[in-house]
Amino acid sequence: MQTNRQQLSPDTVLGNRYRVIRPLGQGGMAHVYLAEDTETGNYVALKIMRDELSDDPEFIRRFATEARAAASLDHPNIVAVLDYGQDGQIRYIVQEYVKGKTLKELIQEQGALDYRLAVPLMIQIGLALEHAHKRGVIHRDIKPQNVMITSDMVAKVTDFGIARTTNANTITLTGGIAFGSVHYFSPEQARGGYVTERSDIYSLGIVLYEALTGELPFDGDSSVAVAIKQLQEMPDPPSKYISSLPKALDDIVFKTIQKSPANRYGSASEFVQELDAFMKNPNGHYGIINNSNQSITTSSALGAQNQSSTNYDKIYEVENSINKSKRSKVRDTTFSIIIVILALALLIAGFAYLYNRFINNDKEENIVFALEDYRGRDIENVTDELIKKYGLELNTDIIVEWENNDVETGNIFDQNPEAQYKFTKGKDKLTFKVSAGTETNTVPNVYNMTRKEAEQTLLDAGYNVVIMEENSSDIDPDHVIRTVPMAGNTLPLEEKVYVYIASAISTTDTNVMVPDIVGYKWGDALSLLNQAGLKIGAASPIGTSVAETDRIIIIQTPVEFSEVKSGSSVSVTYGNAQEYSDYMNPTESTTKANVNMPNLVGTTWDQALNQMQSWGSASPSQISVQYISEESRSQAYHQTNPQDCYILEQSISAGSQLDSSMELVCVLGTYQDYLNMTTPTTTPTTAPTNADIDPNTSNAN
Asked: What are the pLDDT digits (tens) for 359-408?
């Protein structure tokens, strides 16, 4: 007798850990529930395989594929898979709980989206696909229903239920049904052909078309009719529906949905870079297709499909009749084209051999060049030039040391080796001494001061202040426990000093709902939190420090309307009215693209994550962590004890302009590791937090 296993009642516990709260919805493969992780107290989304599929080996394999594929991914624009397993006959996946709506729902509510909103969302989805593709995972079912949009317009890709690693061979289920959704899948998926990363890019192009116009580019009375259009037709340009759209967007969309994968963007990264360039200059030339051969080719993989499939028979017959008339025209010129191609191939191969033999010999392995005299130049300009021109890496090939000097702040006043030295990448190190200026001070001792006294003292000393809260039984509530850097350290003016304030220890376990405080002034936000039985936690400025009377809340964690224990802390990122407006306006924040890398050294992992939320599309494509020692990892693991895990080194120099092509590596350790680093046996001549030191993801894994 078939049981209804996936219809779980509230308080059902799976895996001795996940307590079901209520249903959230259902998809083609699974029912989704809101659940509580009883070990951490966090809310999660629990996906349970549908009963009618639980005995089908192919669907069981797909369900396991989703778990493995998504669990290997760790990116702020991908819904994180936290766990997966089986409890009796129930197979489940545990995901990050994302509060928001799908992109499909957003389009249905608003119709055509303003391109200044749609394009930044596509950039985020593209970054998610870039991350997945680098790890060998193709999504195969990109559609608006599989993209969650949070209240602050962060896109998160979900549902890797038909994802497959790139070394897999087959793309069909039993009976020849193609993976993917017919309105969004690529021509090669319609044919049952080989699917690559460019198939995801095609689907994303269809999503972009729908977001810009509110309409699907291909529609019909049946799935077969839609599939045939995917194979043979090109839609009207988006600007036909929305006349105000820049023509450049038509070109970008059409390149993305080319029938031939070779004519599309080569990678998700290339697609993202083009969209980013478009947002900076909408009047530029984009979507250029280098391959002039626009013909639509058919895949021999179609004939390999199970011919018992009625849908595939229809597609095959229609496509075969259309292409039959083309073959006679093509046949006469095929032979001469083959000869030309072979001749060109031989010519190119010969040129490549000569180039590699005499010009490019060992270029990648041994990059050698003569150093210039970089003294007097800005450190950011010099490092950017060396990175782009020779592929050098900060804190590996280039070492930056900041020192007090009367030279203009940020300028190089000494270098080692000297100019004309023959520098070898991977063997030599280039050390720059950079002026920190003369505007420095010593961090004052604010131990046991009240919050307001400490903040004012540090502001008077010329520093920006970040208030943090933590429990303490030794210090009175609202008094300073410690600062990072510690008192007595030399630090340039306007650097951040983290002030840890003792908070009252809550003794109640009552659950309360987190109020929405984004957009509220500081005092009003504190009142709302106080009324809800909560308190302010980590408070970081999105830019420079702002006086309390001028502060507006920009980001809050946990998000609004989530349930937490009474007395819990709510972390916030704040700014002034203009910074709030800039952050909430996707167009301005994307166009400006002037996010500079902050100095994270000395901050805890949870503080760093709070800052990373404000980077938006400028966020590095990969954020990973290393530990200074295995002992430190066991004492302060960033996933379980983020408040005790300190950043000791970072691979991107403070002050460098961030963009999505970068990768950020952070070296982590305990507070004692940080003290050992910042308090050497001799008095340091430079502020430890200004050193650019070479150091998992921004989704906190």
From this structure: 544 444 468 888 999 998 988 889 888 988 888 887 778 887 767 777 78
Q: Which residues pair with 622 in a beta bridge?
A: 663
Residue 76 in this model has a pLDDT that exceeds 70: yes
| Domain 100-325: top CATH class | mainly alpha
Cα-based distances in Å from 75 to 71, 72, 81, 160, 396: 11, 10, 11, 14, 25
> For residue 630, what are the CA distances in angstroms to 452, 600, 604, 634, 672?
39, 21, 18, 6, 14
Sheet with 398-403: list strands edge to edge: 398-403, 430-435, 412-416
The contacts of residue 397 (CB under 8 Å, 6+ apart) are 386, 425, 426, 428, 429, 430
| Structure tokens belonging to residue 497 | 């000093």
User: Is residue 695 within 8 Å of 395, Cβ to Cβ?
Assistant: yes
How far apart CA 234 and CA 471 sit, in angstroms, is 62
The correct answer on CATH 3.40.50.300 for the domain covering 13-96 is no
Q: For residue 406, what are its two tokens?
A: 């009367």
Residue with tokens 């249903």: 23
Pairing of strands 90-96, 43-49: antiparallel
Determine the Cα–Cα distance for residues 514 and 531; give it in Å rounded to an integer: 10
Residue 212 confidence (pLDDT): 96
- Would you call 648 exposed, middle or buried from its count of C-beta atoms within 10 A (0-12, 13-18, 19+)? buried
Tokens of 78: 């991908």
> Strands 646-650 and 663-669, how do they pair?
antiparallel
Q: Is 640 exposed, middle or buried (0-12, 13-18, 19+ CB in 10 A)?
A: exposed
Confidence tier at 5 by pLDDT (50, 70, 90): low
Residues 6+ apart with CB under 8 A from 606: 538, 571, 642, 643
CA distance 586 to 580: 11
Rounded to whole angstroms, what are the CA distances from 644 to 502, 602, 624?
15, 11, 18
Distances (CA, A) of 244 to 118, 536, 566, 639: 14, 44, 50, 46
The structure tokens listed for 412 are 């190089």
Token readout for 193 is 């052909």
Beta-carbon contacts of 584 under 8 Å, excluding residues fewer than 6 positions away, are 152, 519, 554
How crowded is residue 169: how many other Cβ atoms within 10 Å of its Cβ? 6
φ, ψ (nearest 5 deg) of residue 102: -75, 160
pLDDT, tens digit, 9 for 90 and up, residues 649-692: 999 888 788 887 888 889 999 988 888 887 654 444 343 443 33
Q: What is the DSSP letter of 127?
A: H
- Helices marked H in 135-284: 187-191, 197-213, 223-232, 238-241, 247-256, 268-280
Q: Is 141 a catalytic residue?
A: yes
Per-residue pLDDT reduced to its tens digit, 37-53: 999 999 999 988 776 66
Number of H helices, E strands in the chain: 18, 29
Q: Looking at this protein, which amino acid is placed at residue 232?
A: Q
| pLDDT for the residue 355 | 61
Write the DSSP symbol of residue 48.
Answer: E
Amino acid residing at 69 = A
Domain spanning 368-435: which CATH class is it, in words? Answer: alpha beta
| Dihedral, CA of residue 71, residue 75, residue 80 and residue 86, to nearest 10 | 0
What value does the mean pLDDT of the chain take?
78
d(CA 649, CA 628): 9
- Over residues 158-172, mean pLDDT: 49
Residue 402 three-state SS: strand
Q: Which residue has the tokens 């429990």?
A: 471
- Cα separation, 377 vs 93, whole angstroms: 54
Residue 16: pLDDT band with limits 50, 70, 90? very high
Q: Which of 141, 200, 250, 251 is catalytic?
A: 141
- Mean pLDDT is lowest, of 77-86, 210-219, 498-507, 603-612, for 498-507
